[in-house]
Design a protein that fits this description.
The chain is α+β, with helices and mostly antiparallel strands. The protein has three domains: about 45 residues, 2-Layer Sandwich (Uridine Diphospho-n-acetylenolpyruvylglucosamine Reductase, domain 2), CATH 3.30.43; about 120 residues, Uridine Diphospho-n-acetylenolpyruvylglucosamine Reductase, domain 3, CATH 3.30.465; about 110 residues, CO dehydrogenase flavoprotein, C-terminal domain (Enolase-like, domain 1, 2-Layer Sandwich), CATH 3.30.390.50. The chain contains eleven helices and 14 strands. The strands form four sheets. Strands 4-5-10-6-7 form a five-stranded antiparallel β-sheet. A four-stranded antiparallel β-sheet has the order 11-12-13-14. Strand 6 and strand 7 form a beta hairpin.
Length: about 290
């Protein structure tokens, strides 16, 4: 694969990035870590005459405490997320996903923003952020839009981000008492493989151990991260037991819209969803109970 000729630009501020993208419009693309975009440019998935690097914009970096939670800058690398004590304390499931992604070399370059904005159906961060009730901030010269991450995705590699908008940060609420979340994924090998199917789940437990709220989000089995609409109705008010796990697994399997490709058939993926839903919910339950 050969990278097509394109003019490279460094933006030092958000305003400069907006000015550059406004100048060239659809002929330009933003670059963060580049671990996906450069491959896509080489394979002609995307074409661009101008590439605008965001890596010099300090406002997009860092992981820091925010009001009742954590702020993760769009340029934070996967390795920074995977090793952050703050992320481990406040939103452990996000760290779970980051640690399972790619190789150490890729994690040192790949960014949180790139994993989200790329909107690849098998991306690992969107489902764990969705069950963590995360929101996104999108900056443009006209202001900042904040939205739940699940509202950001439209379809495979499609989002609601406007051409002049830059994803600046992810805001993840801290974990209250009685809250737990888990992530279960399956790949064809143990290292550096994309998910064939993946499920994230979170639970908020009542004082008596019954389920107050639940979220289940699927990845790699639909065109975009998919929240399971019936997960709450089948578990709310009940103690999570084998019967509840089975009902939740069936609801997740019904919500999946998998394809058949070289990594697995639609039937195989749907069965995986059931198994992974059980695993993610059991991890969430254990963490909600304060178990190691």
């Amino acid at each position: 694969m050969i990278l097509s000729e394109a003019e490279f630009h460094n933006a030092s501020t958000l305003e400069q990035a907006a000015e550059l993208i406004g100048r060239w419009g659809k002929q330009a693309l933003f670059l963060a870590g580049g671990t996906s975009l450069l491959v896509d440019l080489k394979s002609d998935r995307y074409r661009a005459r101008h590439v605008i690097s965001l890596t010099r914009i300090a406002a997009l970096r860092g992981i820091a405490p925010a009001d009742d939670g954590v702020r993760i800058g769009a340029l934070a690398t996967l390795d920074e997320v995977a090793t952050s004590a703050l992320v481990r304390e406040e939103c452990l499931v996000v760290q779970d996903a980051a640690r399972e992604m790619a190789s150490p070399q890729v994690r040192n370059l790949a960014t949180v923003g790139g994993n989200i904005v790329g909107a690849v159906p098998c991306a690992d961060l969107p489902p764990v952020l969705a069950v963590s009730n995360a929101t996104l901030n999108l900056w443009s010269p006209s202001g900042v839009r904040n939205m739940p991450i699940e509202d950001f995705f439209v379809g495979s590699r499609q989002t609601v981000r406007r051409d002049d908008e830059v994803l600046t940060e992810v805001l993840v609420p801290g974990s209250p008492a009685g809250f737990g979340a888990g992530y279960a994924r399956f790949g064809l090998r143990q290292a550096n493989s994309v998910a064939v199917a993946a499920v994230a789940a979170s639970l908020q437990l009542n004082a008596d151990g019954s389920v107050a709220r639940v979220r289940v989000c699927l990845s790699a089995v639909a065109a975009k991260p998919t929240l399971v609409p019936d997960a709450h109705s089948v578990l709310a008010g009940k103690v999570l037991n084998e019967n509840g796990l089975e009902r939740a697994a069936q609801a997740a399997m019904a919500a999946a819209l998998p394809i058949t490709d070289l990594r697995g058939s639609d039937v195989y993926r749907r069965e995986l969803v059931g198994t992974l839903t059980r695993r993610a919910l059991l991890t969430a339950q254990a963490r909600a109970r304060g178990e190691k």
